[in-house]
Amino acid sequence: MNPSSTAEQAVLDAHYMARALELARKGLYTTHPNPRVGCVIVRDGQVVGEGWHERTGEPHAEPNALRAAGDKARGATVYVTLEPCSHHGRTPPCADALVSAGVARVVAGMQDPNPEVAGRGMQRLAQAGIEVQSGVLEAQARALNPGFLKRMEHGLPFVRVKLAMSLDGRTAMASGESQWITGPAARAAVQRLRAEASVVLTGADTVLADGARLTVRAAELGLDEATTALAMSRPPLRVLIDGRLRVPLNAPFFKAGPALVITCVTPENQFPRGPECLVVPGVDGQVDLRSALVALAARGVNEVLVEAGPSLAGAFAQQGLVDEYVIFVAGKFLGSAARPLLDWPLEKLADAPQLKITEMRAVGDDWRVTAIPLPVASV
């Protein structure tokens, strides 16, 4: 292949991979604990099949695309956002399906970090004489599945902390009054964040003070009817951090549906009936948050959305457990007596944690700021 044709092929590969990523996003609300994956099959310059992984336990993206392509898959190029699986899970290996279909080339966005795959899918294809390539639009492919990647690579879920504040950095009045700081568009965005997450996590203080339920409300999602139905078909698990088991069983949080309580005390006497309890290490009634996250990852949890008050949100921040902050900023002041965004006492400016703002956009009358913590510089 000459240099010009190589460059042209790279452009085509990026074009079709972008479409595969677009398809993968259709599974944004429904694939947990599996990754979101899209697939495009191209033959003679024409798309002959498309598919995406729609929900856990159902066929993966590749079989769905192969079914759409039929006999036209033979000799075609397959673009898939994640390396085809090579092991038997709830569904047969996708690599075997591609070999059986007689495809000529497979282009993957990235290698699958799952130890059961981790290059074996592409190796299986290459051994069958199929041309393989990986790493096309890899950054975008990784961004699509931050929780799955972190769970596979580090044994922890991706932690996103959602916060809402006034322009002067306050979250509630001194009395605790906080509804509503932001407007309806921002609240709809929060509902979508909940629907995307594997887990929505809060603390006892928030549940006791606000009567919080932390459910996904279909009417507030702001999505079309079909996407709303998908989002509501897999509600996130609601998790309560309650080290001392202070929240009573008649709280609105428990009446709203299934929930998991993570505590550090023995629940038999205090919690004889009600939601499932998970006991993890703790000190003085304070749950060890890293242990809680490890336990959630072991259950297949990819993404955790933390919606909590300044104490619990501050604890996640101080312990370096936050991967991303999503902060909604309202155009109002709450005054110096109002409650702070995070309970995180800092003595010196040099101690201030650094964040990189990755996105800032208007949401109705409010602003949404997305930021990631920067690594602490070594001395």
Automatic annotation (TrEMBL):
Cofactor note text: Binds 1 zinc ion.
GO molecular function: 5-amino-6-(5-phosphoribosylamino)uracil reductase activity; diaminohydroxyphosphoribosylaminopyrimidine deaminase activity; NADP binding; zinc ion binding
Record EC number: 3.5.4.26, 1.1.1.193
Protein name: Riboflavin biosynthesis protein RibD
SUPFAM superfamilies according to UniProt: Cytidine deaminase-like, Dihydrofolate reductase-like
The encoding gene: ribD
Protein keywords: Hydrolase, Metal-binding, Multifunctional enzyme, NADP, Oxidoreductase, Riboflavin biosynthesis, Zinc
Function per UniProt: Converts 2,5-diamino-6-(ribosylamino)-4(3h)-pyrimidinone 5'-phosphate into 5-amino-6-(ribosylamino)-2,4(1h,3h)-pyrimidinedione 5'-phosphate.
Keyword Hydrolase: yes
Organism: Pseudomonas palleroniana
PROSITE patterns xref list: CYT_DCMP_DEAMINASES_1, CYT_DCMP_DEAMINASES_2
Family in the record: In the N-terminal section; belongs to the cytidine and deoxycytidylate deaminase family. In the C-terminal section; belongs to the HTP reductase family.
